[in-house]
Automatic annotation (TrEMBL):
Gene3D superfamilies: MFS general substrate transporter like domains, Multidrug resistance protein D. Signal peptide: none annotated. Keywords: Membrane, Transmembrane, Transmembrane helix. The chain crosses the membrane at residues 36-59, 71-90, 102-121, 127-148, 160-182, 188-210, 222-241, 247-267, 279-301, 321-338, 350-371, 383-406, 426-446, 458-480. Residues 37-487 form the Major facilitator superfamily (MFS) profile domain. InterPro entries: MFS (IPR011701), MFS_dom (IPR020846), MFS_trans_sf (IPR036259). The lineage of its organism: Bacteria, Pseudomonadati, Pseudomonadota, Alphaproteobacteria, Hyphomicrobiales. It comes from Aminobacter anthyllidis. This is MFS transporter. GO terms for molecular function: transmembrane transporter activity.
């Protein structure tokens, strides 16, 4: 079965501006061919997201079984690096294989990595499997955003992006439960292999439903080898620096990563094979401001990685409860992603409101998380509400933000814009994680450690990372000035 995409004739002059956008409802997104496409796109992101949480939950059991504690962090590091590479190469994959072939190939790569992890006899094999998983997952993640623009009409973009974004919140609830159940019974291999039937089903759905060719036949995509090498080195440098307990090594890794970002921007501006669309590294352009907004929002949410530790050490919560309280942030992102797609008539206000909510949430985090409350709900409630605000702030901005990236990208660089958005998102998540580790180490989470170290770390994490959404408010105001009522 092969669906042909209907192409509306372009509107001349100011006629386009005179046509009122068609009201979009959830029924439009889930009905007929649109519903089939939506299921396929959301399924790929769900596979990638659920796997992330299964792996995180199962890794302690993996290490206890096959060893390799020294390489514990690299299971995540290699996964993230490979995911970034996958997202950066998505435009090339889509251009060469078309939507159907790209999705089937991406799912096959992901399934191969999953099978390798499930059968791994040692930690080196596990690391190889995680890298392959990351590559396939990066493809799936970026392809979802790229194909929204290709297979759905523009008036449904915001809802589709909201739904796709919400899959991470849903995965936060599903993934740890699956990984935890299998790990508790010493069957972590089944935790990985449980994804394989879904990979097969998803590959079949993608093959049957997605179009064989993309309408972007005029888009030429070359692989930016030099930029990819520098990007990989930047992620590895920041990640390696964050693993050290010495502040000097933390700063060295972070400095090397930031220096390489500057080099990448210079190289990409002059290269014929580009990592991001033209203007993406220039904040005076709409695309540059939009990508910077993505980067700042991703930096702002990274204190989340220390939330379970802080809740256990400062507020007497069990690992299970601390994990689910931390998941409130992802829940807020999911709820806001669903809701904000209905509010796109106020897209400019949402663009500024989102960072303000993130800022308010981090202020609550800085005020209430450091207090040693021993389970006092008068402290846990504002902490939970703060986490909800942080996630809600990102989610309320996200659909309009991604939609504007599509609209502002040059017509011949649409696939590059979609893959670039995911590349920026994943890179700054990795950078933010490293920065959070550096701030926590500096604040004394290891030395002196204990309650005092955890309290100091909570204060510094909330205060330092609040700077990201504060700056993001200014950037969002610039986005509104540059892009007007888009989205």
């Amino acid at each position: 079965m092969d669906f042909d995409l209907e192409q509306p004739a372009p509107l001349a002059g100011n006629a386009a501006a005179a046509v009122a956008p068609k009201p979009a409802g959830w029924g439009d997104l889930f009905s007929g061919r649109h519903g089939i496409y939506t299921f396929a796109l959301a399924g790929g992101v769900t596979l990638h997201a659920v796997n992330m949480y299964i792996a995180t939950t199962a890794m302690p059991s993996v290490i206890a079984d096959i060893g390799g504690l020294d390489f514990y962090a690299w299971a995540t590091t290699l996964f993230v690096v490979a995911s970034i590479l996958g997202s950066a190469l998505t435009a090339k994959l889509l251009n060469g294989s078309g939507p159907r072939g790209a999705y089937v190939l991406a799912t096959s790569i992901f399934a191969l990595g999953t099978l390798t992890c499930a059968l791994a006899p040692s930690i080196p094999v596990m690391l190889v499997g995680r890298a392959i998983q990351g590559l396939g997952g990066g493809f799936l993640f970026a392809l979802a955003y790229a194909l929204i623009r290709i297979v759905l009409p523009e008036h449904l973009w915001a809802r589709a992006i909201g739904l796709t974004s919400a899959m991470f919140g849903i995965a936060t609830l599903i993934g740890p439960a699956i990984g935890g159940i299998f790990a508790e019974y010493g069957a972590w291999r089944l935790g990985f292999s449980s994804l394989l039937p879904f990979c097969l089903a998803f590959a079949i759905v993608a093959y049957v439903t997605l179009p064989r060719k993309s309408r972007d036949t005029n888009e030429r995509v070359a692989v930016p080898f030099l930029q990819l090498v520098m990007l990989t080195v930047a992620v590895l440098a920041v990640s390696a620096g964050s693993l050290s307990a010495q502040l000097a090594w933390n700063l060295a890794g972070l400095g090397a990563g930031l220096a390489l970002i500057v080099l990448i921007s210079g190289v990409d501006a002059r290269a014929s094979a580009r990592l991001l669309p033209r203007g993406a590294f220039n904040v005076s352009t709409p695309l540059g401001a939009l990508y910077l907004t993505v980067a700042l929002l991703m930096l702002a949410i990274q204190p989340e990685i220390f939330v379970p530790y802080l809740l256990q050490n400062l507020h007497g919560q069990s690992p299970l409860w601390s994990g689910y309280i931390a998941a409130v942030m992802s829940l807020g992102w999911s709820i806001a992603s669903f809701m904000s797609s209905r509010w796109q008539a106020h897209a400019d206000r949402l663009m500024v409101l989102g960072p303000l909510l993130v800022l308010a949430g981090l202020v609550l985090f800085a005020l209430f998380m450091p207090v040693n409350g021993a389970g006092d709900w008068s402290l846990l409630l504002p902490i939970g509400f703060g986490l909800l605000l942080v996630g809600f702030g990102v989610g309320v901005t996200w659909p309009g933000l991604v939609t504007r990236i599509f609209q502002c990208a040059p017509p011949t660089e649409q696939d590059l814009a979609a893959g670039g958005m995911t590349t920026v998102q994943l890179f700054f998540m990795a950078l933010g994680t490293a920065c959070a580790g550096m701030v926590a180490n500096f604040a004394g989470i290891v030395e002196p450690g204990g309650v005092e170290g955890a309290a100091n770390a909570a204060v510094w994490l909330g205060t330092i990372f609040a700077l990201a959404p504060a700056l993001c408010v200014l950037v969002a105001l610039r986005v509104v000035r540059l892009t007007g009522q888009r989205g």
